[in-house]
Amino acid sequence: MSRPQFVKDSSIETYHQIRDEGLLGTDQDKVYKYILANPDSTDREIADGFGCIPNRVRPRRKELVNMNLVQMHAKRVCEITGRKAYSWRITLKPDLEMARRVKCAIKVRCPHCEGKGYTLDYGTQN
User: Fold this and answer.
1) How many beta carbons lie within 10 A of that of residue 70, not counting itself?
2) What whole-number distance in Å separates Cα of residue 101 and Cα of residue 47?
3) 17: which strand partners?
4) N- to C-terminal Cα distance for the chain?
């Protein structure tokens, strides 16, 4: 059973705005466009669409979630693995300001784990 394929005009307009502002890296852009064209896709389905392994897709998808451009949709049976997995969709009303802040964030040592890990410092927007 295939999933419905549809893209709203507002989603396409938002994508063009995101692209024109340079908010996405190359792989982020590929993942975003795939989810835009194939809503309700799992990480494995996205990876299969690119012909790569899921470990290459997940970090980019997670970055898009952190930028509030992609959101979890549902838990369903993956068409590739036959196992239950979360599917993803484009955020209906993305927070482009958050995406801009994430894009400009710098990686700093985490103060809570004695500098062993990293966190993002979003700084202040002028």
Assistant:
1) 23
2) 27
3) none
4) 49
For the chain, percent helix, then strand, then coil, each to nearest 5?
A: 45, 20, 35
Q: What is the CA 4 to chain-centroid distance, rounded?
A: 20
**Residue boundaries of the structural domains of the chain:** 9-93
For every residue of 57-107, DSSP letters joined together read HHHHHHHHHHTTSEEEEEEEE-TTTSSEEEEEEE-SS--HHHHHHHHH-EE
| Architecture, CATH, for domain 9-93 | Orthogonal Bundle (1.10)
Tokens of residue 10, six digits? 């507002």
pTM of the model: 0.64
Query: Tokens 């990480």 belong to which residue?
Result: 43
At position 30, the amino acid (one-letter code) is K
In the DSSP assignment, the letter for residue 118 is E
pLDDT digits (tens, 9 = 90+) for 48-89: 998 999 998 999 999 889 888 899 999 999 999 999 999 999
Q: Which amino acid is at 40?
A: D
How far is residue 21's CA from residue 83's CA, in Å, rounded to a whole number?
A: 37
Contact by Cβ (8 Å): 34, 71: no
